[in-house]
Design a protein that fits this description.
Blueprint: E1 2-7, H1 10-16, H2 19-26, E2 28-33, H3 44-49, E3 57-58, H4 66-84, E4 88-92, H5 96-107, E5 112-115, H6 127-137, E6 141-144, H7 147-155, E7 163-165, H8 169-180, E8 195-199, H9 208-221, E9 226-230, H10 233-242, E10 250-253, H11 258-267, E11 270-273, H12 276-285, E12 289-291, H13 299-304, E13 307-309, H14 314-326, H15 328-336, H16 345-361
Parallel strand pairs: 1-2, 1-4, 2-3, 4-5, 5-6, 6-7, 8-9, 8-11, 9-10, 11-12, 12-13
Length: 362
């Protein structure tokens, strides 16, 4: 049975990393990389860190507007799917690669499996939210990571027979990484729980005005504690072009591979981020997570108290972080909150798809 797995960004590679080897064992799997992320620091290093094989097709989409990027992907993916004629296409998450892969397959009447279905921020200003909704409604197998996602799909009229509630492959990826990596060795002369980890990359957070406000707050926070900031390429470009001031207490690095990042996340006092994937990883690693957004598609962690939305107001960010640093028992409580982490989502997904495709062959 032939399947095609389509992806194009760093988060997709990470979240598919436990699935790809399992699919290779059970199917003839074609790996299609769209080229949405294409630099070594945003792409190739993750294949190396996560011990993944090379792709069968590496497309050259590159950057551009959402329409340009998605359009190029659609045309290129369609050519590959016509040539390979797989029985199923797998996509993950909410990127332009996810949307293009699902659309191309759907137009060719190839069934689509969506990993991480049903996640909603309920903010349609976010391009990821549009992608998530569209992909869910053209998919045939929807793998929801939690009860919130499951209920979102039901509320949107998707029939329950298409939905599988197995947990998140991010959990499997994170646990797999812990087994592979040495968590004790810290770079940048850092000491365990004596620094904050910061990431900022979302389009709405990296406009000049918004980014300047964030970094104003982070500069002030860094007066109390070191901040390690692996800088996304787009974010770095805006900082340099606009000469945004960065405190000497903020350690700027290039984008990190998964290996280095997970070690630094696991040993941080807490993380401040606008990333959905890091919200999951921090929960698995028991690291308090403060979300630099006004909403999130991962509300189960927020409702449990494991993660906290702190918004985008510079003063609010400063006030909350200072309160946490001055009252460390609040961080201890966040760490002590137990969450129900579902393991082996990847194995269950492979098992279901194997059974479903076997029925069709019979």
């Amino acid at each position: 049975m032939k399947i095609a797995t389509i992806f194009g960004t760093r988060p997709e590679i990470i979240k598919l990393s436990p699935l790809i080897p399992l699919f290779d064992k059970e199917f003839k799997q074609i790996l299609i990389h769209t080229g949405q992320h294409y630099s070594y620091s945003m792409d190739k290093i993750f294949f190396e860190d996560l011990h993944l094989r090379d792709c069968d097709y590496s497309l050259t989409t590159g950057s551009g507007t959402h329409a340009q990027q998605t359009g190029k992907m659609l045309m290129m993916i369609e050519e590959v799917l016509i040539e390979e004629n797989p029985e199923l296409v797998i996509v993950q998450g909410d990127t332009n690669s996810t949307l293009a892969g699902a659309l191309a397959a759907s137009k060719l009447h190839i069934p689509v499996a969506h990993i991480e279905a049903g996640c909603r921020s309920f903010d349609k200003r976010m391009p990821e939210e549009i992608n998530r909704i569209l992909v869910d409604h053209i998919s045939d197998y929807l793998f929801a990571p939690d009860d919130e996602a499951f209920n979102n799909l039901i509320n949107e009229g998707i029939t329950v027979d298409k939905i599988y509630l197995f947990g998140s492959t991010s959990v499997d990826a994170c646990l797999r990484a812990i087994d592979i990596f040495n968590q004790e060795k810290l770079n940048y002369s850092l000491v365990k729980e004596d620094y904050i980890l910061l990431t900022l990359h979302r389009q709405e957070n990296t406009t000049y005005t918004r980014l300047k406000e964030f970094l104003y707050a982070i500069n002030i926070i860094s007066e109390k504690i070191k901040v390690l900031f692996p800088v996304h390429l787009r974010t770095r470009k805006i900082i340099l072009e606009n000469k945004i001031e960065i405190s000497d207490n903020i350690i700027l690095t290039d984008p990190l591979g998964y290996k280095d990042f997970i070690v630094l996340l696991a040993n941080s006092k807490f993380v401040m981020t606008d990333s959905g994937g890091i919200q999951e990883e921090s929960a698995v690693l028991n690291v308090p997570c403060f979300i630099l957004r006004d909403n999130t598609e991962w509300m189960e962690y927020v409702k449990s108290g494991k993660n906290m939305i702190i918004g985008t107001s510079p003063q609010k960010i400063i006030d909350i972080v200072f309160d946490m640093l001055d009252n460390e028992q609040k961080l201890v409580i966040m760490r002590q909150i137990e969450i129900q982490v579902k393991h082996d989502a990847s194995k269950l997904i492979v098992s279901i798809l194997k059974d479903e495709l076997s029925k069709k062959e019979d």
